[in-house]
């Protein structure tokens, strides 16, 4: 079973929930799919045993063969190519590696070359299998990194995936591979707005979802009412407490700093497991 912990908005406490769930689920493995800014290692201090480079195709032009017809640039939907007089400009950061420009070139002047966009690290942490992705700075999309991470997930082990914040392509990829999507939010108008975007993504992908309200307080009704309207259950609330924030800032997982939270998180996991098994 794969549980993806996501959040429409950054800074809602997604990693707090994901790391604690992973610690209490027996035989769990953990995937940090926030490849632009992985931070679960700060809580788990993993030992990395394997590093796998992740590459992506980038076009390369043979100017000897090129007739500067512009067909490649016309085809490219991502503006990664521009043909100006006798020059073909390539912007590798914009390329999504579809290979279309190679296919449409009438002179076979366009070739594919691989370029490294990041890496996947695999190791162990606190007795768990630990996988994390790292996207190189300025690279636009973590999708390939996330696919590579998920390709190394061991079959048969419960998997907790910490997704990136937001609802961009990488998050869509992460949720699409999940059996359940746990959405962590905060009871603010921004939190609600971005939560509903994430609820839409999960619904569109046909992945069942539930909500955790972090920093719960007087404004929870904002989230409760919207979730009720959308038919998404609020499965857990975590109060707004300075001690929880302090433990987080010291790199302590919720269930390590406050073992009394084990029961509530276990109940949350059991609820998800029963729902998925149904
Ligand atoms: S399609 Fe081929 S020949 Fe035409 S401009 Fe592009 S690389 Fe050159
Ligand atoms: S591979 Fe696709 S995205 Fe990349 S430059 Fe060619 S057409 Fe554009």
Secondary-structure map:
Layout: E1 2-7, H1 14-24, E2 29-32, H2 41-44, E3 47-61, H3 71-75, E4 81-84, E5 87-90, H4 100-104, E6 110-125, E7 128-135, H5 143-151, E8 159-165, H6 169-176, E9 180-185, H7 189-205, E10 209-216, H8 220-230, E11 233-239, H9 242-249, H10 254-257, H11 262-277
Parallel strand pairs: 1-8, 1-9, 2-7, 2-8, 9-10, 10-11
Antiparallel strand pairs: 3-6, 4-5, 6-7
Helix pairs in contact: 1-11, 7-8
The structure holds iron/sulfur cluster (2 copies).
Describe, in short, the structure shown.
This protein is of the alpha/beta class and 278 residues long.
How many individual β-strands?
11
Supply Rg.
22 Å
CATH class of the largest domain: Alpha Beta
Mean pLDDT: 94
Note the beta-strand portion.
Answer: 25-35%
Question: Major sheet: size, sense and barrel closure?
Answer: 9 strands, mixed
Bound molecules: iron/sulfur cluster
- Broad structural category: alpha/beta
**Helix count?**
11
What is the number of domains?
2
CATH topology call of the largest domain: Rossmann fold
- What share of residues is helical? 25-40%
Q: How far is it from the N-terminal to the C-terminal residue, by CA?
A: 13 Å
Please tell me the CATH architecture of the largest domain by its name: 3-Layer(aba) Sandwich
Shape: elongated
CATH superfamily of the largest domain: P-loop containing nucleotide triphosphate hydrolases
> Can you list the strand order of the major beta sheet?
3-6-7-2-8-1-9-10-11
Question: Spans with pLDDT under 50 lasting ≥5 residues?
Answer: none
What's the multimeric state?
Answer: single chain
Write the element-wise H/E pattern from the N-terminal end onward: EHEHEHEEHEEHEHEHEHEHHH
